[in-house]
Structures are given as C-alpha cells and as structure tokens.
Design goal:
323 residues, 4-stranded parallel beta sheet, 7% strand
Length: 323
C-alpha cells in the first residue's frame, strides 16, 4: 500500500492556500472531506457538489474507516481522472478516530468540514434509515442500547476535539443542519469558501431536494432487505457501485425497500432521557463553536406532564452506554 513519504509540518500547512493544499498530494488524493456525522445533509451535499467538485463515483467509499487495507490505488480508482477540487462526503468518518488519524497521515493538509444537527433528531433519522435498509432489527429503545453508532456519532464535542487536535482549528469548518435547511445558499457559500471552491448559484430543484427519512417505513421483509443491503456493500467494495445505482433507479427497489408499517415516534419519556444523555456534550459544543444550542437540550413536551428523568436514572443510563 502506498502512503505519503513525508507529513508536512503544521507550520507549513498554515502557510498553504487552499489551491496549494489540493496539490500537496499531486492532486491524486482529496483536498477536503465532509465527515458528517450521518443524517446531517451529506446526501444533499453530495448531490449538490457532484459535477462542481471531483467526488468518488459512489457517495461513501468507506476507505479510511473500513477499506483502508485495500490501499490507496483502490481508493483512487473510485475517482474519475478529471482535474479539479477533489473531495469526499464521508459521514461515517466523524466518529472514527482511526479514520481521522489515517487522513492526517495521508492528507495532512486536508480541509475538514463537520455538520451538526439536533443530536436526538439526528439519532431518530439515522435509526429510521438503518431500520429501513435492514441494518438493524430492533425497535428504537433497544437500538440505542445495542447499536453503538446511533449514540456515539452524536457525541459531537468529543469527536470535534479529536479532529481539531489532528488538523488544527483553522482547518476545521463547523456548520449546522438548521442553517442548511433555512438558508441553503448561504450554507454552500460558506462551505465553498472554506474548501476553495468557486461560489455557485443553487438552482430551484437543488434548493428543494433534501433527502429525508420522514417518509421511510419499516421494510416489507427485513431478511430480504438486509441481504440486498449486504450485496450492495459487497458490490461497492469491488467498485461495482454502478450496479447498485442501476437497481436503485429500477422498479426492483420497491421490492427491497419500504412497504412495511410506518415508523412511530418514540415516547416523550424515551426521547427526554436521550436528550438528558447529551446535555453535557451540547454544552461543550456551545463552548467550542460559540453557538447557542439551548433548543437542543430538551424534548418538545407535546403537552406531556411527565416529570423529567431523575439524575440517578440519567447517570445509570450513561454508565450502561459507556458515556
């Protein structure tokens, strides 16, 4: 596996302009990464940036967290040979210190963008996605106990500090899903300025196409959907993602995704406990970013008169989850 022979010093990186950063690896590796976490508008960003920057043929290569053993030649084959600003939209990298370290070693001058969203709403969205695609078989309460990614990827302050330590505050861009939702043009202008991409005007359809999990349902057949998803991962690992794309655009996809009952929103008590678990993380993120996130700290009551979770219950839940 080929790796960089020399890691530029942090001082050298500070002196580099964004276009120079894109050339530090001979243009063969990305100059920027949008590392998520998942369900923060990354699918929309991939759709928007495709054709304006050089992105992999598949949305998520999973190179730096899953397929690193395949080597950089495998990774580079995911990109077309055209010149331009090369990057990757990679939401699974955010909560992976190993991915962060590997990017730091291979692309030390990379610009890193993170997008944050109300952590509990993001967990709900990610749960619906994983359940709809047959990745997990459980209900919401059991899933947050048994699927580490759901909770771990919402520990925003914990992982933001890891990325800042690796790349420096000046090479980290923090954005918020609410800004994307309420002002997509300003959102992409800020990101484009950060990664060095010339600003561009969003078209009408681009402003309205935001991928959502609200309309997703449970799969008609969990076993069939899970096997189809595993086959899609197998094909992508062998750089046959075009087959997966063809199936997604065909009527066959209706047999593999959806068709089951609609998702029911978890109880207020369950949501409030989840909010309590992330209260300290949110407060620390406020300090790191200077953003008021008070609306993220409590579940909407919806008229509920149920008392808040007792502190000892929250502490026990933190212990059980390894927080």
């Amino acid at each position: 596996m080929r790796v960089s022979a020399r890691v530029p010093s942090r001082t050298h990186l500070k002196l580099c302009s964004v276009p120079q950063m894109a050339l530090l690896n001979g243009g063969s590796l990305p100059s920027f990464f949008v590392v998520g976490p998942p369900r923060t508008g990354t699918s929309w960003l991939h759709h928007i940036l495709k054709g304006r920057a050089v992105l992999p043929r598949v949305k998520e290569t999973r190179f730096f967290d899953v397929h690193f053993h395949r080597g950089t030649d495998w990774y580079q084959r995911n990109y077309a040979g055209t010149a331009g600003y090369r990057g990757e939209i990679a939401p699974t990298y955010f909560a992976s210190p190993q991915a962060c370290q590997r990017i730091r070693e291979l692309v030390p001058a990379a610009r890193i963008a993170c997008i944050f969203r109300n952590p509990v709403e993001r967990i709900l969205s990610l749960y619906r996605l994983k359940r709809a695609y047959g990745m997990i078989p459980w209900g919401f309460d059991e899933a947050i106990r048994r699927d580490p990614e759901l909770m771990e990827s919402s520990r925003y302050a914990t992982y933001l500090k890891i990325w800042r330590q690796a790349f420096g505050k000046e090479n980290l861009h923090t954005a918020f899903f609410e800004d994307l939702r309420d002002g997509p043009q300003g959102f992409v202008n800020s990101l484009a300025d950060f990664i060095g991409l010339p600003r561009f005007q969003l078209t009408g359809p681009e402003v309205t196409v935001l991928h959502t999990s609200v309309t997703m349902t449970h799969p008609r057949s969990y076993r069939r959907t899970r096997h189809a998803n595993q086959m899609a991962d197998w094909l992508k690992a062998r750089q046959l993602g075009q087959i997966v794309s063809m199936v997604k655009r065909s009527p066959v996809v209706k047999l593999l995704l959806g068709g089951g009952p609609a998702f029911v929103r978890p109880s207020w008590e369950s949501l409030q406990m989840t909010y309590e678990l992330f209260r300290s993380e949110i407060s620390e993120l406020e300090a790191l970013t200077g953003r008021d996130l008070s609306q993220w700290k409590r579940a909407p009551t919806g008229g509920s008169t149920t008392p808040l979770p007792r502190p000892e219950s929250v502490m026990q839940a933190r212990k059980n989850l390894g927080f």
